[in-house]
Write a structure and sequence with these properties.
heterodimer; A: alpha+beta; 3 helices; 4 strands; globular; B: 302 residues; 8% helix
């Protein structure tokens, strides 16, 4: 099981953006974008082999940016 | 001495497994300390008065919060059935996040026994947590505290229920013209204290996990919702009711025109449609309510 996870991580790290690396490393990551559509694109960039759970998209009252908290699902 | 305001009394929880922090963006909290009593008056006593005796102690905490960004973490936590550290205390500083160590501050271990997320149209989404004590309360918390960043808000129309028509295909259609959505996860607990247990505190243990989803939608005239807007309407819900078999669901973030484009999935699984209620009051919009009961375990994410 552990070996499988390591292999997945190696594959993902070759192409993944920074937040995916953070997700794999820390077990959770926060995605931020100016629009919902940008946030949806970021989510689409998470490789299919990475199983994650997401919270509800939040919008900052301060600056209007959108935020999504994702965490690895074991 | 001024009366304490509600914002200066907060619940702190060890939700991340390391340090205790306030439950962020909370709007209300209730702490209930219960002495369970047993009548001890007997025929030998003079008069008619009762004499209750304390036989066990229980406690619970209920918190409402506008933070639903951590929905996945909450769904994972209640499913994990782990006890977490809870604390209540008077708080100070500008953001009311720093515990003061008031005389009435208490801490103890608790289960997340109930978790409800409400995503209603044109309303801020709400998370309600019920935490049930699983042992004694003490006055001293020895761990560290963490201060949270200010959070973000989620309008309910940007989280929607996608419901399938069978138990095999990933659902692609939202409930059309829906107005309300509520997800409720419940961890059933039973007192497991015995004659071997020291003290009066009840010792709660998990015995079951269940969840249900309720939604409300407007009834649109005719029978064309599915073909016109690719959404599930009343006729499809009635078909699901008649079949009486589980169907796949997903609750997901949405974007795009009419908020029907599926984004990051919050939870998924299978449900049974247990009740469908059509409401048609005079001179008001006709609506229907659907109650869906979780069938098997839910998955956090897709």
């Amino acid at each position: 099981m552990g070996k499988k996870t390591d292999n997945t991580q190696e594959q993902v790290e070759k192409t993944a953006p920074a937040f995916v690396e953070e997700l794999l490393k820390k077990g959770s990551a926060i995605l931020r974008a100016k629009t919902r559509e940008e946030l949806a694109e970021m989510v689409d960039n998470i490789p299919a082999e990475v199983k994650y759970g997401a919270g509800a998209v939040g919008q900052s009252r301060e600056d209007g940016t959108f935020l999504l908290m994702v965490e690895l699902v074991k | 001495m001024a009366t304490l305001k509600g914002q200066n009394f907060r619940i702190l929880a060890q939700l991340d497994g390391t340090s205790v922090s306030v439950i962020g963006m909370s709007t209300n909290c209730t702490v209930t300390l219960t002495n369970n009593v047993d009548e001890s008056s007997v025929k030998d006593d003079v008069g008619l008065a009762s004499k209750p005796e304390v036989v066990s102690k229980a406690w619970s905490v209920q918190v409402d919060s506008l933070n639903v960004v951590n929905t996945a973490a909450m769904l994972t936590a209640i499913k994990a059935m782990n006890k977490i550290q809870i604390m209540w205390d008077e708080v100070s500083t500008d953001d009311n996040q720093s515990p003061e160590g008031a005389g009435y501050a208490r801490t103890g271990m608790a289960y997340i026994s109930d978790c409800t997320f409400t995503f209603n149209n044109r309303e801020n989404s709400v998370k309600s947590l019920q935490l049930t004590g699983a042992g004694p309360l003490t006055t001293v918390y020895a761990g560290s505290f963490e201060v949270l960043d200010p959070g973000t808000y989620t309008k309910g129309q940007f989280v929607r229920l996608f419901l399938g028509s069978d138990n095999t295909t990933t659902p692609a259609r939202v409930i059309g013209f829906s107005t309300q959505l509520q997800v409720h996860v419940s961890l059933q607990l039973e007192d497991a204290s015995t004659k071997d247990t020291t003290g009066d505190w009840q010792i709660q243990e998990p015995t079951g996990l269940s969840y249900d989803i309720t939604t409300n939608a407007l009834v649109r005239g005719g029978d064309t919702i599915t073909s016109q807007v690719q959404a599930q309407g009343l006729s499809e819900l009635e078909a699901i009711y008649e079949a009486g078999t589980p169907v796949k669901f997903q609750i997901a973030n949405v974007s795009g025109a009419n908020q029907r484009t599926k984004g990051a999935v919050i939870m998924s699984g299978s449900v049974i449609l247990s009740q469908l209620t059509i409401n048609a009051p005079n001179r008001q919009n006709a609506t229907y309510d659907a109650q869906l009961n979780g069938w098997g375990a839910y998955t956090v994410g897709a």
